[in-house]
Amino acid sequence: MALTGINAYRTGNLKQDIANADPHKLTLMLMQGALDRIAYAKGAMERREFEQKSQLISRVSAILMNLRDTLDLELGGETAENMYALYDYMLDRLNEAHMKNSLKLLDEVTNLLTPIRDAWVQIPEQAKQEAYEAQRQKREAV
Questions:
Q1: 96: which DSSP letter?
Q2: What pLDDT does residue 2 have?
Q3: How confident is the model at residue 109 (pLDDT cuts 50, 70, 90)?
Q4: Which of 108, 132, 139, 142 has its CA 20 to 30 A from that of 72?
Q5: CA-CA distance, 113 to 104, in Å (whole number)?
Q6: How many CB atoms lie within 10 A of CB 6?
Q7: Long-range contacts from 20-24, C-beta under 8 angstroms, 24+ separation
Q8: pLDDT tens track for 7-59
Q9: Contact, 31 vs 123, CB < 8 A?
Q10: CA-CA distance, 64 to 79, in Å (whole number)?
Q11: Thinking of the domain 21-123, which architecture would CATH place it in?
Q12: Any idea where the domains of the chain sit in the sequence?
């Protein structure tokens, strides 16, 4: 019974965090959410809770597809293209981990995504503002 209240509180806080987040923070939240769900999927896999494992891996896949599909390949150039390919690779590894029940493959995806998340945290505020301005100008030009 108490968990229901805690979960409702968490959900409310998450909705508030999303509503108040800038694009940088939203991306960070997505990356962290993917990493958290991979960890939960590993636990489900170890416990042989295959339905839960499947749901969690599906959520991670959806997050990675969102991150991949929101890349601006035109503005980001080669870096964005490389990130797109890396997200595709991670999606392939997730699918293989799901089919083979492989903790090792889930660890591989974690080891690929963690440095991206860590680098994202280190982006200076000025660089974030410049990126937002470039995006705004691009939208206005269309």
A1: H
A2: 47
A3: very high
A4: 108
A5: 14
A6: 9
A7: 22/128, 22/132, 23/132, 23/135, 24/120, 24/123, 24/128, 24/131
A8: 554 555 555 555 555 788 899 999 999 999 999 999 999 999 999 999 999 99
A9: no
A10: 17
A11: Up-down Bundle (1.20)
A12: 21-123
Residue 131 to residue 73: CA distance in whole angstroms? 14
The two tokens of residue 58 are: 């599906």
Identify the residue whose tokens are 């492989």: 102
Q: Please, which residues have CB within 8 angstroms of residue 52's CB and are 6 or more apart in sequence?
A: 40, 41, 44
Report pTM. 0.79
Helix axes 103-121, 73-100, angle to 10 degrees: 150
Give the Cα separation of 128 and 100 in Å (integer): 40
Distance CA 110, CA 104 (A): 10
